Task: inverse folding
């Protein structure tokens, strides 16, 4: 069994560095688990950073590319690390709406944000000032769930999207055995299996000169939480609550974003912090071990767990350990 247990701390929800936003404390369906306070989340993150100083190696403050995932909101003095496949579309819309009063017509409109600001486009002195003075938000998601979301969104059929064009045909050519008179071109039209995608990610991790696409790159290599001092950690699993602090900062109200978390169970004060991911049932032991290694730091930084016997992803400890997410 592959199983991680985060620091066991339970308290009411109070958002760090923002005393004006205190919220209710929903419980997990059928459990006593609760949403961790921001203080608890940062304690866990900083503890893991201190034990693993190598996590700062991917951060180069002199290289502007380090900051290419940090979106700048000068109007509200906010920075947001846009982690792909972690509710980034929702957040794009929230920030864009707060600026313009309109929703994005194209949810993948990179130019819309380039017009407002990406931190990598600023000079070092301007970057440093914003990193020092602005309120910084990071959104995370269970990495093994995020990996499935990436596969579903980018590789289950033939796309014209750059992520598919650069990676899809290549992974199928590398890992699929052609049957009978079937051609590679015909196989590519079918899309990639999840098993092929996992093997491809493992290959990229192990091969010098290769790197992961941003859509599945570990979040600690994109948002650099051990080097940048964030003020708010939002979890996709608890976005209905966590996003209230963001909406407050943007001067918006929740009625304008009523369906902010697709994981909502429909029960007003209940959150579902466990999810069975049967896609991993077909992954071999060695490939599972290697993919887990890729995202191990992401899991420990944010208190995520994986039960390899039941293919269950958890935010926080299992029910009988009275943990929090």
Result:
């Amino acid at each position: 069994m592959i199983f991680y247990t985060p620091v066991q701390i339970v308290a009411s929800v109070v958002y760090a560095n923002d005393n004006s936003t205190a919220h209710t404390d929903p419980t997990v369906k059928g459990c006593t688990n609760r949403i961790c306070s921001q203080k608890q989340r940062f304690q866990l993150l900083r503890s893991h950073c201190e034990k693993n100083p190598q996590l700062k190696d991917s951060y180069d403050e002199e290289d502007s590319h380090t900051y290419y995932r940090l979106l700048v909101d000068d109007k509200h003095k906010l920075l947001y690390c846009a982690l792909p496949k972690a509710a980034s579309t929702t957040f794009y819309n929230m920030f864009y709406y707060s600026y313009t009063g309109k929703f994005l017509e194209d949810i993948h409109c990179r130019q819309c944000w380039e017009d407002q600001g990406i931190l990598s486009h600023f000079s070092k002195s301007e970057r440093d000032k914003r990193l020092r003075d602005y309120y910084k938000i990071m959104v995370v998601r269970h990495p093994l769930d995020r990996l499935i979301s990436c596969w579903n969104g980018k590789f289950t059929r033939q796309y014209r999207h750059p992520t598919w064009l650069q990676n899809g045909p290549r992974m199928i050519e590398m890992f699929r055995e052609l049957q009978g008179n079937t051609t590679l071109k015909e196989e590519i039209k079918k899309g990639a299996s999840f098993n092929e995608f996992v093997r491809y990610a493992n290959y990229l991790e192990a091969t010098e000169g290769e790197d992961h696409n941003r859509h599945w790159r570990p979040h600690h290599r994109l948002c650099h939480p051990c080097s940048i001092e964030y003020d708010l950690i939002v979890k996709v699993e608890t976005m209905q609550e966590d996003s209230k602090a963001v909406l407050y900062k943007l001067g918006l109200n929740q009625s304008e974003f009523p369906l902010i978390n697709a994981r909502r169970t429909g029960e007003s004060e209940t959150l579902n912090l466990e999810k069975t991911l049967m896609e991993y049932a077909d992954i071999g032991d060695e490939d599972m071990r290697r993919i887990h290694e890729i995202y191990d730091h992401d899991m420990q930084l944010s208190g995520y767990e994986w039960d390899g016997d039941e293919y269950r992803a958890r935010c926080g400890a299992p029910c009988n350990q009275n943990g929090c997410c």
Summary: Residues 1-156+219-325 form one domain. The radius of gyration is 20 Å. Residues 152 and 173 are 19 Å apart (CA to CA). Strands lie at 27-28, 70-73, 78-81, 135-140, 232-235, 270-271, 274-276, 304-307, 312-315.
